[in-house]
Structures are given as C-alpha cells and as structure tokens.
Amino acid sequence: RFRNMDIQMSVDGTMGLRGPGNSGFFIVRSNCKMKLFMNTMVSLIGLIMTGRSDQMLWNTLLQEKQFRMINFETLSTQHFISGFQVNIAHKTKRHNLPQDHFIVHASWTTDQWDKIEKFYNIEHWYFTEEKCPKWYNFSVLPDLAERKWHIRDKTQEQEQKFKQLGLFRDSTNGVYEKHS
After folding, report:
1. Predicted TM-score (pTM) of this structure
2. How many C-beta atoms lie closer than 10 Å to residue 59's C-beta?
3. What is the C-alpha to C-alpha distance for residues 88 and 96, in angstroms, rounded to an integer?
4. Contact 172, 148 (CB under 8 A)
5. Which of 22, 78, 85, 149 is most buried, taking the most CB atoms under 10 A from its CB?
C-alpha cells in the first residue's frame, strides 16, 4: 500500500488548522513530487520559526492546489500512537493502548516535561538508571530551572513526583522567579 503513498503522517486527532496530520512522526517517499514539496517547506522555514510549529504548514501545503497530486494518508493509530491517545489527566497506562503499537508520539502536551510524563505513564521512558545504566547521567536530565514559571505554578505535584523518581532535576531547588 505504501508503494502508492508519498507521505504518511501520524494522526493529530483534530481536523482544524493543525490537522489531520501530526508532523511529530511521518514517512516521506523520495520522489519528484515530494522534492518539490520539501523545497517549498524549506523556502517557508521563516513561518515555522515565527509560528513555533511546522504542523500547520504541513497540513496547509498538503491542501494547496499545486500539491494535490501528492498521495497522503494518516498512519493507523493501532500501530502509531498519537498524543490524544495518551491522556495525563485520565492516567492512561500501557495496557490501555493497542498491544501491537511500535511508535508513540507524545503530543498534546504543555511542554517537554509533560511528554516525559506521558512516556513514563505508558512505560516507554527509558532514560533511567535502571533501564539505561550504561548511558544514564543525572546531569543531563531535563532541568526544571528551564521550565516556564507560569507552568511551574500549576505543576508542583508532577515536579515532586518526577524528581523523586529521578526523571527530572532541579538546579533551583524549587525556587523560581515569577515574571509579569
């Protein structure tokens, strides 16, 4: 089936400007159509830099008249787990996901620390002393000092839990400055 596809993307779970494709994981066929498409993406890199996300650009360009010859489909959420399938508030666990999945994209998060929580909750966070003893190094763990203060105000319980588990470090020892 992929023989006829030019691009397959994970599913975003929304049909607005940000969907249906999620640019967190995609497969692109190397052919003339896709080279033209990717050259267009590169020429519009400034939009990505100012807009913080490339996903809207991907989905917008895929709908443009000059790219309608591109064969596009979203990947099965049976094998390619998307962020909307892993919900922190509902405490999604690995047993809640299809057993034969092989890619997980932790989208639909506030920041990268929420991504770690999603991976941890579904048993796909591997950078721990137990799971990765050869490469684990506490000093390269994500440092909460880099987290925005307005998010830290709302996530104290998460931060404490993951500091105790050794998944985050905090060079500020919980002290952060609020900016207006």
Report:
1. 0.81
2. 21
3. 13
4. no
5. 22
Alpha-carbon distance 90 to 39, whole Å?
41
- Which tens digits make up the pLDDT trace of 23-77? 888 999 999 999 999 999 999 988 888 877 788 889 889 999 999 999 999 999 9
Distance CA 29, CA 24 (A): 17
The Cα–Cα gap between 140 and 171 comes to: 12
Phi-psi map region of 5: left, alpha, beta (phi>0 left; psi -120 to 50 alpha): beta
CB 23 within 8 A of CB 75: no
Whose CA is closest to 54, among 67, 64, 40, 36? 40
